[in-house]
Every structure is written in C-alpha cells, then in structure tokens.
Amino acid sequence: MVESPQSQNALSPDELHEAWAVLSGDERLEGFRLLPPAVADDFFLGLSAREQAELILSLPPAERRTWVRLLPPDDLADLVQAVEPDQVNTILSQLDDASRREVNVLLAYAEDDAGGLMNPRFARVRPDMSIDEAIGYLRKQARERVETVYYAYVLDAEQRLQGVLSLRQLFQAAPDKRVADVMQRDVITVAENTDQEAVSRTFSEHSFMAMPVVDEAQRMKGIVTVDDIVDVVQEEATEDIQKVGGMEALDAPYFDVGFLAMLKKRAGWLMVLFLGEMLTATAMGYFEHEIARAVVLSLFIPLIISSGGNSGSQATTLIIRALALSEMRLKDWWRVARRELGTGLALGTVLGLVGFTRVMVWQGLFHSYGDHAVVIGLTVGVSLVGVVLFGTLSGSMLPFILRRVGFDPASASAPFVATLVDVTGLVIYFTAASLFLRGSLL
Predict the structure, then answer these.
(1) Cα distance between residue 379 and residue 387, in whole Å
(2) Using one digit for the tens of pLDDT, what is the confidence trace for 259-301?
(3) pTM exceeds 0.90, yes or no
(4) What is the pairing mode between strands 161-166 and 151-155?
C-alpha cells in the first residue's frame, strides 16, 4: 500500500510536541490533523489548557464538540479559564447540560483551591450495599461517566462521606458482606477551600492516588488526583523560582507571554532594585573623602559587597524553600536566627582569612600596599566577617518577615537581598576602615 503525500510529511507525536512551541496556529492545526486517530486523543490530552483552548478554537465548529467532550470537568474548567471572556460561551455551548453544570460549579471556586482542582466525577457506593452489588455499581459508573477509579467512596443519602474502599479491598472481601463492614472509616480529606500548596503537602505526606474534597458539612464534592498535584507542584515551583530570580511570576509559558506583558513582569522589580542600588551610590558618596585619601580601599569594594550579597542569597534561598515545604514554621524564626548567626560567623571568618591572605600574598609578590599592608588586610578580613554575618542573618530573616505580614516569602528574591546587603556592606567596610586606618591612611 502506497502512503499518501500527507502521511509521508506527517510528524510523529513526539516530533510535533517538540516543535509545538515554535509553530504558528495554522501549522499546529495542520500537524494535529495529520496525527493518526489512535494517538491524537493522547496528544490532545497532553497539551496545556491554554494550548488545548487555542487548538479547539481553531477547529471548525462541527469538530469542536468531539474534543471538548473528551475532557473531564476539572480540565474543562481549566480550559475555560484559559480563554478570553468573549470565548467562554463558545466552549460551554459544546457541552451537554450535566457537564455544563459541573463546569460552572468548578468555576465558582478559586483556581488555586482544592475545589478548583477537583473532578466532581468519582466512584461512589452506599454503605448498605453488598460487595457484589458495589462491584457491579462501580462497573456501571466506569462505563458511563467516571474516568478515574482509584478508590470507591462510601456516601450516605445526604452525600456525606462515611468511608473509603480500595479496589483491592473490594475484590478481597466476601461477596455477601456489606460495604459498611469492610470500609475504612478514618478518611483523610481536604476542605474545598484548601489552598493547592496545602493539598500537595497532604499528598506528599500520605502518598495517595486521589483525595476526597468535602465541604463544611462533610458532604463530598469531588476528588483531587495525583496527576493534578504534579501539575500544581510544577506550577508552584516555577512561580517561586521566577520570584526568587527577581521578577513577577509569569502566568503562561515563556513564548506565550507577549512582549509588553514580559516587560511589565520584569520592569517593576528591576526599578525597585535600581532604586535600591542608588542607595549604594549614596553610601559611596558619603565616604568619598575616605576613598580619595586611600584609593586602595576602592579596590576591595566589589569583593566586600558581592560576598555579602552571595551569603544573603544563599540564606534566603534555603529558607524560602524550607518554608514552602513546611520544614519550618514562623515560630521557628529564633532557631533559624541562632543557627544562621553561627553559620554567618563561620563563613565570614573563612572568607575573612582568605581576604587577609590575598592581601598578604599580593604584598609579598608585588609590594602593592606599601607599609600598610597588614592593616589593610585586617580591614578587609574584619569587614568580610561583618558583611557575611549581616548578609546571612538578613537573608534568613526576610522570608519570615514577609510571611508574617502576609506576603509570599519567595518575594524575598536573591537580587533584592543582594541589593539590601550592598548598602550595609559599604557601611560596615568603611566603618572598619576608619577604625583600623585612622591616623595612617585616613
């Protein structure tokens, strides 16, 4: 059988996925249409909500319904949130009444809450069912609407959660036993308004495949599955990394963010950091007489302030990540301060000794500092101890302060801490210089 030219030019799913980010809308549609039906479904489900929405809206109206109805309600809610407001009805109009109601319920929740993540379709049984009846009922649900069956949730007539059964427990139980006899009554749940970060921590603590979402009356509203949490963890980690880098978090992949939007995300923090660095220039102006009288001091300014900034960036990165993973809480700030005090002194002493040694070696090789080499070396060494200590303490405490006043600790970005330490580093350096060099170079 001879392949058609279209089939010969078709990309494999892996090749299309790799090239997807750089393809135009028309090229994406053409490549997607060339995929064999057997793999097109999986390829479509593997796209992000924004990419799914763009692809669906590029299809003729007659083809949209098939792809929209392929998605479960929680993914449909994500897709609706990814389109422009005037396109929402275009998507919702493709759904049957029951699916539309489910999606509208999900859209009423905040996007980052458990209610916004959950799938309202889950396997349910009644406590008075026999094991055989429960298995038959689960088969019926799987054929009709439920895509994910990790556990069977036991609900009473008011939809309150009574217990849970794994499929293994179901199949191992005697056929004539009742569900209430074998179900596990102590069920780990999350409230519908629980933040997605807290949900991901609960998953990591218990290693579940799915977790029930309940309201205040313990009525079960849906399930959050582990694949949803993988996406959440990636999203939260990306957001934190971008904030730590000294910018606002992007709301979309890099190539999907417009030029003006990218400028807005990055310019704000750059302006703040620039204004902060202006204080560094002010501090240097304050010590201009000392610099003029001992020009050699200016040679070590980059060394001093970069060491303080680096130590502060290290500390703030460690604390931000520990807070994000709930390895520490706000009340642990004093324990952290004591630990970082010792760490800062030790690191500062090591760098101070290296700085002093560097001055002495250059003096021995090149006679760079004249009769004042030892005093200059002491000035550099002591300054490094003070600057690194201050950088470590400020870098470790700033995330706690931000969390305490209600901000994201990740906003304590490494560039922000470095800018803060630059100014204080100059003050520490020239204060040490005035103590050691007064009466000689100053």
Answers:
(1) 12
(2) 888 888 888 878 887 887 787 778 778 878 777 777 888 889 9
(3) no
(4) antiparallel
